[in-house]
From TrEMBL:
<keyword id="KW-0234">DNA repair</keyword>
<dbReference type="GO" id="GO:0032993">
    <property type="term" value="C:protein-DNA complex"/>
</dbReference>
<keyword id="KW-0227">DNA damage</keyword>
<dbReference type="GO" id="GO:0006307">
    <property type="term" value="P:DNA alkylation repair"/>
</dbReference>
<feature type="region of interest" description="Disordered">
    <location>
        <begin position="1"/>
        <end position="23"/>
    </location>
</feature>
<protein>
    <submittedName>
        <fullName>3-methyladenine DNA glycosylase</fullName>
    </submittedName>
</protein>
<dbReference type="GO" id="GO:0032131">
    <property type="term" value="F:alkylated DNA binding"/>
</dbReference>
<dbReference type="GO" id="GO:0006285">
    <property type="term" value="P:base-excision repair, AP site formation"/>
</dbReference>
<dbReference type="GO" id="GO:0008725">
    <property type="term" value="F:DNA-3-methyladenine glycosylase activity"/>
</dbReference>
<dbReference type="InterPro" id="IPR011257">
    <property type="entry name" value="DNA_glycosylase"/>
</dbReference>
<dbReference type="GO" id="GO:0043916">
    <property type="term" value="F:DNA-7-methylguanine glycosylase activity"/>
</dbReference>
<dbReference type="InterPro" id="IPR051912">
    <property type="entry name" value="Alkylbase_DNA_Glycosylase/TA"/>
</dbReference>
<dbReference type="GO" id="GO:0005737">
    <property type="term" value="C:cytoplasm"/>
</dbReference>
Length: 316
């Protein structure tokens, strides 16, 4: 698909209208695509002032850059690089064409209100495993700020500049063999402990087998990923949510999600994974979407403990 930015002729109208998909559902590009962003300074993802979203990625056919934006009620997209055709063919899935928001039935007042206020939420499907798996591994048992910083440093250090006229500072993530060859001292400089580094290396060494999981049903895909030591249910769920647009895969094992879901649905900020899954049971088949809507509601439990300090192994 291709498009061209044309300045809006009427400055009093919204210059970035929400497009409507072929099935009649609204599409909010920001809500749909930002789960792919790993922090505000992600070198592989950028939102620009003209309303465009840029994504640099590594496809099976090579590096590629995508620019997508809403223009006059439609989606305009451009792609560059060896993997451009691959991205073009999969753009509808990336924008949630394979998602079925009509299958979701809100069963709580808070979820219903958020669902009504966020009609353009679609679940993205990238079809690419490693680009979601590696940053999810980096996010294991550390703050998001730590993980985002590590991802940013490693992609800038070992990736390659995004093809085409991408905004300055955008990079395509390294290929698997490069991840596998990063020396120990560079992991340390990127604030990644040896355990997480080892998991990334193990995954990179079997990357072709893991990429096959993109064509499997979500449960089978998660089982394939979890064959790699160090990849557990939380990491596999975080990955398939993006690779498959999986509406039912919940991030069990998350530090904050059970308390947020418990507080939103039952007023219980101490809920654990078992209680969270019990509360989400009415949304069977759509539990991930329900959890996303709860997060988007902004209803979070009151903080009872100091914010977790950002760690830095580079000082050790």
């Amino acid at each position: 698909m291709a498009g061209r930015f044309v300045p809006h002729p009427n400055p009093h109208r919204d210059p970035h209208p929400t497009p409507v998909t072929a099935d009649g559902h609204a599409l909010d590009l920001r809500l749909t695509l930002t789960p792919l962003r790993r922090g505000p300074e992600d070198p592989a993802f950028r939102a620009t002032r003209d309303g465009a979203f840029w994504r640099a990625t590594r496809t099976p056919e090579g590096p590629a850059t995508l620019r997508v934006r809403a223009l006059e009620g439609r989606v305009a997209a451009d792609t560059w690089g060896p993997g451009a055709a691959w991205l073009d063919a999969r753009l509808p899935a990336l924008l949630g064409a394979e998602d079925d928001p009509g299958a979701f039935v809100p069963r709580h007042r808070l979820v219903l209100a958020t669902h009504r206020h966020r009609p353009g939420l679609r679940l993205t499907r990238t079809g690419l495993v490693m680009e979601s798996l590696i940053p999810s591994i980096l996010e294991q048992k550390v703050t998001t700020a730590e993980a985002y910083g590590s991802w940013r440093r490693l992609v800038r250090r070992y990736g390659e500049p995004a093809p085409g006229p991408a905004p300055e500072g955008m990079y395509v993530m390294p290929e698997p063999r490069t991840w596998a060859r990063i020396p120990s001292w560079e992991w340390h400089r990127a604030n990644v402990d040896s355990r997480r580094a080892a998991v990334v290396v193990r995954a990179a060494r079997v990357a072709p087998r893991l990429e096959e999981a993109a064509a499997m049903p979500p449960a089978e895909a998660r089982a394939r990923l979890e064959l790699v030591p160090g990849i557990g249910p939380w990491t596999s769920a975080e990955t398939v949510q993006r690779t498959h647009g999986a509406p039912d895969e919940v991030s069990a094992g998350d530090l904050n999600l059970p308390g947020i879901v418990g507080w939103a649905l039952d007023g219980d900020p101490t809920a654990d994974d078992a209680r969270m899954l019990e509360l989400l049971a009415p949304y069977a088949g759509q539990r991930h979407r329900a959890a996303r809507l709860i997060l988007l509601s902004g209803r979070t439990p009151p903080r009872r403990a100091p914010r977790r300090a950002v760690g830095d192994i580079r000082r050790l």
